[in-house]
Write a structure and sequence with these properties.
Strands 1-6-7-5 form a four-stranded antiparallel β-sheet. Strands 2-3-4-8 form a four-stranded antiparallel β-sheet, covered by helices on one side. Strands 9-10 form a two-stranded antiparallel sheet. The chain has seven helices and ten strands. The chain has 289 residues and is of the alpha+beta class. It has two domains: 140 residues, N-terminal domain of MutM-like DNA repair proteins (Alpha-Beta Barrel), CATH 3.20.190.10; 125 residues, Helicase, Ruva Protein, domain 3, CATH 1.10.8.50. It binds a DNA duplex (16 and 16 nucleotides) through loops.
Length: 289
DNA sequence: CACTTGACCTGTCCGC
DNA sequence: TGCGGACAGGTCAAGT
């Protein structure tokens, strides 16, 4: 699922549902989804109370009273869905995802004193790790992660300076590089480049200050809009309550190849950049202008 | 170094 | 209907 807006949406939901609840038991069916020792799990997960839910980059952090944290990366198809005790009763709408949980994509189940938290992940790329809270910032994943694009302290000047660390790379490749900027993935890279009228293959060195400023504005705009819409559901993504996000109906180019550009009416095309499907308007986003 | 490709997995869709 | 291949929101490791 999950780029910054999707993970942020899950975080907002879990932050309302989880703090104060106690973890009673954990079960898992795929070691790579939950690569923790039985000893750590017994000592620092079972019986711990959930204190706080946070997000950094595309990662969720659930802080526990045991001074350990659950650190969760949803990768492509991960879901973190809370089902309250009342939801287990008969008569719940059968079309609702949460009526079906656990299902065959469920990798980890956390039983709480009230309700259950399911970590589902069809493709098994995601993971949930139990780590001492003090050590979380120094794990390999976070050591190399860039700044948060929506942080109040992060502005267009800092954005430009970070992009320019990779002058010869295409701008889309750099947007997707988590060590440059945290949280941007394929959807919001394409959407923000369309907004700023920049071809995804443009080398960073060819971008004017004005263009970089436009890109920063557009990136913040699409990320904020998507959080407001509860993220993008293309296939698997759901929030903490099992509900889909609606940003895809606001998308201008992503997965809209063959449709008219909402700005100029030209037909949106799809190419491949950095190994990823890339959507753009060939008229609005020219390589040389 | 910087950039590309393959690997990690399952599921779906599309063409033959 | 079946089968093979391409592709999918993300990161790593290994190759060039």
């Amino acid at each position: 699922m999950p780029e910054l807006p999707e993970v942020e949406t899950v975080k907002i939901g879990l932050a309302k549902l989880l703090p104060g609840k106690t973890i009673k038991n954990v079960t898992w069916d795929w070691l790579k989804s939950f690569p923790n020792s039985q000893a750590d799990t017994d000592s620092f997960l079972i019986g711990a109370k959930i204190v706080l839910v946070k997000r950094r980059a595309k990662v969720l952090l659930i802080e526990l009273s045991s001074k350990y944290s659950l650190v969760i990366h949803l990768k492509m198809t991960g879901q973190l869905v809370f089902v309250g005790r009342e939801r287990f009763g008969a008569g719940h709408p059968s079309e609702s995802l949460i009526g079906h949980l656990p299902d065959k994509s469920t990798r980890v189940t956390l039983e709480l004193n009230e309700g259950k938290l399911f970590f589902n992940d069809q493709r098994k790329f995601g993971w949930m790790r139990l780590i001492p809270t003090a050590e979380v910032p120094s794990i390999d994943f976070f050591k190399k992660i860039g700044p948060e694009p929506l942080a109040a302290s992060f502005g267009a000047k800092a954005f430009a300076a970070r992009l320019k660390k990779r002058p010869n790379s295409s701008v889309k490749t750099v947007l997707l590089d988590q060590s440059i900027i945290a949280g941007v993935g394929n959807i919001y890279a394409d959407e923000s480049l369309w907004g700023a009228k920049i071809h995804p293959l443009t080398p960073v060195r060819d971008l004017s200050t004005q263009k970089i400023n436009n890109l920063f504005e557009e990136l913040q705009y699409v990320l904020r809009l998507s959080i407001e819409k509860g993220g993008s559901t293309d296939r698997n993504y759901v929030n903490a309550e099992g509900k889909k996000g609606s940003y895809m109906s606001f998308a201008r180019v992503f997965r809209r190849e063959g449709q008219p550009c909402p700005r100029c009416g030209s037909t949106i095309i799809k190419i491949r950049v950095a190994g990823r499907g890339t959507h753009l308007c060939p008229k609005c986003q020219r390589l040389k202008s």
